[in-house]
Design a protein that fits this description.
single chain, mainly beta, Jelly Rolls, 9-stranded antiparallel sheet, 2 helices, globular
């Protein structure tokens, strides 16, 4: 029996690690344009292909499923993304509370020095500052390789705060982790806590965002394409401990020969 099936047989919501789990996307479907959240909220996400890019369902030789995001360029229809409507993702509208994000990624460079969005629920309006709201996570895969978390909060007269960690080179599977509690979120790679660079005010609370949850693209769904493979994006409404991050990594690393 696969690890995921064994966990489900025991009662997914009964495990201590799954306390506060709001989203979990193991990409088990293998076909179709819908992927289902196996966490208790049961969000349903749609695979969106504007034109040039493509999705591919796959399985590693170890049997672990994944979803491939293929980007062919930098234009407004050159990538693919997942989304879930704002009305169905109110539980992911983080503001003052703690949260954690964990996902296995094998990201690839696409030749553009711009963010490659992993996941976000936000909007940026450079003309009307007050409309900068929400949160986002992205990787930079060209030039400097870094992971950045951004909080948008135009209500305080500041467009955003960001924090980043370096060393996120493309080409191999890595467990990406972010935990937020207070002004100084933590970044993890393969359960190792990383040095994080913050702005002078830390990471102030993001403003509430009535926006779709988007995976693999900018909030506008026409740029900043993620390129590569992904497995089991999870989001909690609490801060995971260092021990929990190590538990996740040790339980799952064999799928990726890491």
């Amino acid at each position: 029996m696969a690890v995921q099936e064994a966990v489900m047989a025991k009662g997914y919501d009964k495990l201590s690690l799954d306390y506060g789990l709001l989203l979990a996307l193991p990409f088990r479907e293998g076909t179709g344009v819908i992927t289902r959240d196996v966490a208790m909220p049961h969000h349903e996400l749609t695979l969106q292909d504007p034109d040039g890019g493509s999705f591919a369902w796959g399985n590693l030789v170890t049997g672990c499923p994944y979803l491939q995001f293929t980007t062919v360029g930098f234009g407004p229809t050159d990538g693919v993304y997942l989304d879930c409507p704002a009305a169905n993702t109110v539980d992911l509208d983080f503001t003052t509370g703690d949260y954690s994000i964990v996902v296995w990624v094998k990201h690839e460079a696409i030749g553009e020095l711009k963010p490659k969005i992993v996941v976000g629920r936000y909007v940026i309006d450079d003309i009307t500052l007050i409309n900068n709201v929400g949160w986002e996570v992205y990787l930079e895969t060209n030039g400097p390789h870094y992971l950045e978390l951004r909080h948008h909060h135009g209500s305080i007269g500041v467009q955003r705060d960001g924090c980043y960690s370096t060393g996120w080179a493309p080409g191999g599977w890595e467990l990406l982790g972010i935990t937020r509690s207070g002004l100084y979120p933590k970044h993890y790679r393969n359960a190792t806590s990383l040095a994080v660079t913050y702005g002078g005010s830390g990471m102030r609370d993001p403003d509430s965002a009535n926006q779709d949850l988007v995976i693999g693209a900018r909030f506008s769904k026409n740029a900043d394409w993620y390129n590569g493979q992904m497995w089991n994006l999870r989001i909690w409404d609490r801060e995971l401990s260092n021990e929990e991050m190590h538990w996740i990594f040790e339980m799952e690393r064999h799928w990726f020969n890491v």
